[in-house]
Amino acid sequence: MSEHPALKPIRASLLRDFVGYWLDCRAEGAVVTRRADFDIFHLRALVPHLFLYDYNPDDHGFTLRVAGEEIRRLLPNSVAGMPLDRIMPPAFFTEVHNRYRQVCERPAILHAIGRVFLNLGGTGVGERIALPLANEQGKVYQLLGATLYEIGNQQHGSRFEREDFTLTFTTLIAD
Q1: Of the CATH numbers 3.30.450.20, 3.10.450.50, 3.40.50.720, 1.10.260.40, which one belongs to the domain with range 5-171?
Q2: What is the pLDDT of residues 2-22, one digit of tens each?
Q3: What is the DSSP string of the chain?
């Protein structure tokens, strides 16, 4: 069997395993994995790097359900029940919101690698995955993601003005 196109750009083996497991959990003929079929703790080493948003297709809103300790450390507003617009800095909200909407509405798998964090200071890079999750009826109602950060020494005055990364969306189709 050939490698799924969504796996090709992923460098971190933990993220490759995450996406591979998500793909393996899809029911036969399904486009998106159902939340009920996916064990969020399957890859325990990834738990500190996970984030899970509830998605409301009526208003296209995202509300944080869970954020791992590494996500909370780097984005302190990542508190359960908080809407995305209260977590992301205003200058970046529209971009992030539009990306997450594509994951849920296409549906697609998002992969980003490079400077994938916002105004954190210091030096570093990261790699991010975002995946849609479906309810029992097959409708996307959650976005599950993980970001692995590699942040070096904090440097006085070093603040990134924007994210700088390679972004890939892999549109999902039934196998």
Answers
A1: 3.30.450.20
A2: 799 999 999 999 999 999 999
A3: -PPPGGGTT---HHHHHHHHHHHHHSPTT-SS-BGGG--TTSSGGGGGGEEEEEEETTTTEEEEEEE-HHHHHHSTT--TT-BHHHHS-HHHHHHHHHHHHHHHHTTEEEEEEEE-SSS--S-EEEEEEEEEEE-TTS-EEEEEEEEEEEE----TT---SS-EEEEEEEE----
